[in-house]
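Objective 1b. Sequence-to-structure analysis of ATP-dependent DNA helicase RecG.
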Amino acid sequence: MDPVPALQEPLEQPLKSVLGPATAKVMAEHLGLHTVGDLLHHYPRRYEERGQLTHLADLPMDEHVTVVAQVADARLHTFASARAPRGKGQRLEVTITDGSGRLQLVFFGNGVHKPHKELLPGTRAMFAGKVSVFNRRLQLAHPAYELLRRDGEEGEETAEAWAGALIPLYPATAKLESWKIGKAVQTVLPSAQEAVDPLPDSLRDGRGLVSLPEALLKIHRPHTKADIADARARLKWDEAFVLQVALARRRRADAQLPAVPRTAGPDGILAAFDDRLPFTLTDGQQKVSAEIFDDLAREHPMHRLLQGEVGSGKTLVALRAMLAVVDAGGQAAMLAPTEVLAQQHHRSVTEMMGELAEGGMLGGADHGTKVVLLTGSMGAAARRRALLDLATGEAGIVIGTHALIEDKVRFHDLGLVVVDEQHRFGVEQRDALRGKGKQPPHLLVMTATPIPRTVAMTVFGDLETSVLDQLPAGRSPIASHVVPAADKPHFLARTWERVREEVAKGHQAYVVCPRIGDEEDGPAKAGKAGGSAEDEAEKRPPLAVLDVAAQLARGPLGGLAVEVLHGRMQPDDKDAVMRRFAAGETDVLVATTVIEVGVNVPNATVMVIMDADRFGVSQLHQLRGRVGRGSAPGLCLLVTEMPEASPARQRLGAVASTLDGFELSRIDLEQRREGDVLGQAQSGARSSLRVLAVIEDEEIITEARQEASAVVAADPELTGLPGLRTALDALVDEERERYLEKG
């Protein structure tokens, strides 16, 4: 993308020149803040009202917190200590209250003198520290604190600063308390007046938004709650609009790249494949296939996201697209994130294609093609053969892992790249594969996790989206239940009885554990004495595949054929285990999440997920999708030791209550927040969303996308909007820009 002249951003001034080198160093190391602009965009997490006390009862364990409270009691204890001068040590215990709960502060040794003089009963202050438990009581040991002056104390300035003001509490760290950040912000706040406004005047005026300098002043130094609302409304628009402009420019640039049109013939390999199918495509599959074929026939590369429910037949749609490209004389590559998944895709594609996958071989179909597998662990001879088939064009389809990206891999005419489970691939990897075509190949990104519309617009905004929301005929419903192993151990016993019952009917089962079991995570942390049931459950080491498999084979599943599968097994061993399970030779497969995506064994009807609370919502939904793939109903049992009232149990309850992946993805996103969804690979530290919530702010994102598209259509290079170009440079930092350019 050609650089466009931008306004000089006054806020690019380094923090060290304003705050001094020591403070600037801590800001950079602990918060990633380097410039005045970075600090001004480090917004308060919440605000304390003068006179309002926080809820101490809700403090999270082991987290660094900031609270505003009043000293109720302070006592200095002297005790015998061999280490202390003259054999006597001192401990100051201060009790603070918020009217609903109490919290103990503890200071030792030389650290007692200052707080003993300052923290007198009735004093109000901000306290920051890490919440721990001692003698079954919550406490902060050696917290940092900042006294809140009473109105009228220490002259006019302090009274004016605190009287009636909202106290901003900033995202902080152990090395950098909220009030230190607040003081630094106050130092640079006058610079906010010089902030370059990225929004076009017409957009800002039309929506009644305050200017950027006013928004920055109001978010850091609000006088009323209305000030905060005005500031947030404006800053949300900045984030949504600037990001959507970047994506709109990317879409426009992509639309101008050349590509070879690929149109399937009426009686080629695609037609022969469709004739072989033992079932009819769903309406959704036919509609999405039509969208893809339209894109493939154009002279510009397709950039399409294919998403859908677990088991909705995305692989079949992707295979038909690959066959259309082979029909048109090109080659197609499918990139999978793991060897297990690459082998599984290769197996299912060759099974679906039958003799059509044996092009050039004895007994192969006349217009068949070779389907080759390429992974990092293949033997030298098989690898050489696969590379030769790709270079000569004899192999029309290749399925592989990141091994496809290596420099040695040459294609005869790469026409389509299908990326499975896109979020597991770095941008550079996808870009390297796309660079192997004579012209940019068409791109189809498949994601197995349904994505809310707003996330698709925000994260995948440079891709057109196709959604498969129908399940193919013959798919069976899946019943899901939470098994509270700690509260009701007999439920766990019943779980293994159900597995035996399904095996007796000729079916198979998966048991999934979070860990392998050869101590790769190191020893687990010991639980604290007197902790809650939730603490105890969290401190216990996660259940491991090797341990659970051994216990089941000796105990409740004795006599059944039990095998293990995990990521650190040799590839040939993994493949052999999957083949035996697919052939029905294994009754129970105890595995890690290597089976999460793409594994298709219709005879497996039960999924038992151990320590289910240690998995994310989307992961659980993916795992559950491995059963109910045949004519027999599926059963998913979520085993947990977390207590009933815990958030983890509520999350499991949500998964058990619905099979709607789009609804679950919303729940998942609300719990994890956007940072995890956008991911570090997709957003640099400075460009991640701060005030925009991609679920709650659907309306803003939708409108920002429309506004951005209109702005870019009218002025692609943004020559008339230098302030917007500046914001693109600042918010869409180099890492994000690279992501967008290569997406």
